[in-house]
């Protein structure tokens, strides 16, 4: 059975929308998706570091559309592992685990990998929104489109715009 490595932030969790919502609640500043295209997250969102280091941020992120349905299907056909670079932001470790349990109850704790780097995780397919994670991956690479990777090119990868595209590929 093939192993699929699935990123959380920007793939399962709609972190960009969450940053936009946080900014609006903070000071009524409306960030538009078109205005953040091609920008790294730390530039696109003025309070990026404050937000990712605040308690509750990762626990309350909305789910990406169709992520639950498609991942549930893939979990029955593949060995699915959720791989998240969570150690950079210590609050995120517990919050991400709780978030996964709530929104993806079919994912076991044994399928969750929280790490600092993804280049040593072994699998056949990787779905990620950050090119740096895909660049060194030797298997099938799926780049999940997000504003910060609009201008990115990852060799030997397939770019998808959402979970419907993932379903059609896999």
Automatic annotation (TrEMBL):
It comes from the Bacteria. The active site is at residues 7, 9. GO terms for biological process: pyrimidine deoxyribonucleotide catabolic process. It holds the Pfam family NT5C. Signal peptide: none annotated. InterPro entries: 5'(3')-deoxyribonucleotidase (IPR010708), HAD-like_sf (IPR036412), HAD_sf (IPR023214). One of its GO terms (molecular function) is 5'-nucleotidase activity. Belongs to the 5'(3')-deoxyribonucleotidase family. This is 5'(3')-deoxyribonucleotidase. It comes from Epilithonimonas hungarica.
